[in-house]
């Protein structure tokens, strides 16, 4: 598939969120990545469904929701109603990941599973037939601006190989955490399709978003 660049609004200027979202939209963002954190599954708090609803009003681009919360099932319907395009759920955040994925899909929304750096791919293999996406965390979830964990490149590669040999290979591979010009090419070569970038895109006062998105896109074109 064609590669996609997904700005993570966690690193946007919260007091100027609309400005940053419109700027990233205009600069060529393919989708927006929205992190929902509950201060429980991860040691940080961030956005809620109302932010998804607000985002839906200012952009027509797809909204990918990365849920970092315990008991995600309770929030799936509000997030769907708020305008989510894809909902991504951590394998460990729910007692029954298969059921949670089915619940997302029952609303006609795309579903994906998220694997933490310490989560083996084996954990999510049984989900291949029903998922649209696997999000590989390349940092421990919870914060923007962390360093890419180098060993994760091999994991992406292994996942891509599994995808090629599996009968049900209809899922995209997304990477999240520490994606920047130094790390994106290795992820692309390993087989990733969708690239989340937060701090690289939004940090700095005079961020040239178009220049940065174009730069990521050309580096990922392998
Ligand atoms: C971290 C979040 C990421 C975060 C990435 O838990 O899931 O989406 O915004 O930020 P960077 O690109 O700065 O690593
Ligand atoms: Zn994320």
TrEMBL record:
CDD domains: RPE. The gene is rpe. Pathway: Carbohydrate degradation. This is Ribulose-phosphate 3-epimerase. Binds 1 divalent metal cation per subunit. One of its GO terms (biological process) is pentose catabolic process. HAMAP family: RPE. Its EC number is 5.1.3.1. NCBIfam families: PRK05581.1-4, rpe. A divalent metal cation binds at residues 33, 35, 66, 176. It catalyses: D-ribulose 5-phosphate = D-xylulose 5-phosphate. Belongs to the ribulose-phosphate 3-epimerase family. Catalyzes the reversible epimerization of D-ribulose 5-phosphate to D-xylulose 5-phosphate. GO terms for molecular function: D-ribulose-phosphate 3-epimerase activity; metal ion binding. Substrate binds at residues 8, 66, 142-145, 176-178, 198-199.
